[in-house]
Each structure stands twice: as structure tokens, then as C-alpha cells.
Q: What sequence folds into this?
């Protein structure tokens, strides 16, 4: 009989939300355990067994008050967090829907809509790959 290796593993989802050719970004709170103070796209870890699209809509609603439409998968990332948790992250192109009141959770301190061509450097380098995919695949056409 083989030993079972326990791995601290989770699936996370993130929303690359575009409105009027601008990307929604949020600044992590200064007291956040994971990467405090960085500008990132919203999302979070799924509950065990949770559907990724439904979980993404839940996370965005909890973090921003926003309702979104999930349009297209952009990328899959696999990495280890600072606390050693192994993450598989699914990042989706999304657009905001009508309704909801924009209100940040305590996990973030600020938000901006940034121009991807002029302000990409404001966003954490971790997400620059998704900006490139968005441009290379001409995904603006899905937002019309």
C-alpha cells in the first residue's frame, strides 16, 4: 500500500472584465496575506466542487457588487502561493451586466478601469500574459 501525499490544493478563478475598452482592476488591501498592495483582477478560490463559472460570478459579486457575463476562457495558470498552497487558476474574459452597485469588499482598498494599451504597467506583471492574449486574439470583438 502506498502512502497518500496530502497537497494543499485549490482551484481559483479570475475575471478579466472589460467595459468600454478598459479593464477593471483592484488594489489588494495592505494587510492581505497574499501579495498585499498589488493591482490585480478580481476573483478568488472556489468552494470544493463548485462550478467555475458560477463560482466566478459569486466571487465577483462578493468582491465588487458587480454582475458579470462570462464570455471566453483566457488562460489556465498553475503556481504555488506564498503560503505554500498550490493553485490552478482559470482566467475568463468577462463583461459587466446591468444591475448591482459597485462596492468593494474589505479584501481590496481601491479600484480603477484602466486603458490596456496605456496603463498595463499599473496591473501586476502576473496578469500581463492575459493582456497579451486579449490583444493577440483580438477579443475586443466578443465585447460588442
A:
Amino acid at each position: 500500500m502506498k502512502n497518500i501525499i496530502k497537497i494543499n490544493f485549490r482551484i481559483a478563478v479570475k475575471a478579466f472584465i472589460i467595459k468600454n475598452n478598459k479593464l477593471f482592476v483592484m488594489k489588494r488591501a495592505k494587510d492581505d496575506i497574499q501579495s498585499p498592495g498589488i493591482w490585480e483582477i478580481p476573483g478568488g478560490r472556489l468552494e470544493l466542487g463548485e462550478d467555475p463559472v458560477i463560482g466566478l460570478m459569486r466571487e465577483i459579486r462578493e468582491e465588487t457588487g458587480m454582475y458579470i457575463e462570462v464570455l471566453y476562457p483566457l488562460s489556465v495558470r498553475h503556481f504555488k502561493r506564498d503560503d505554500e498552497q498550490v493553485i490552478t487558476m482559470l482566467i475568463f474574459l468577462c463583461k459587466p451586466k446591468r444591475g448591482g452597485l459597485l462596492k468593494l469588499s474589505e479584501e481590496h482598498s481601491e479600484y480603477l478601469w484602466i486603458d490596456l494599451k496605456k496603463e498595463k504597467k499599473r496591473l501586476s506583471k502576473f496578469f500581463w500574459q492575459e493582456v497579451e492574449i486579449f490583444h493577440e486574439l483580438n477579443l475586443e470583438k466578443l465585447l460588442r
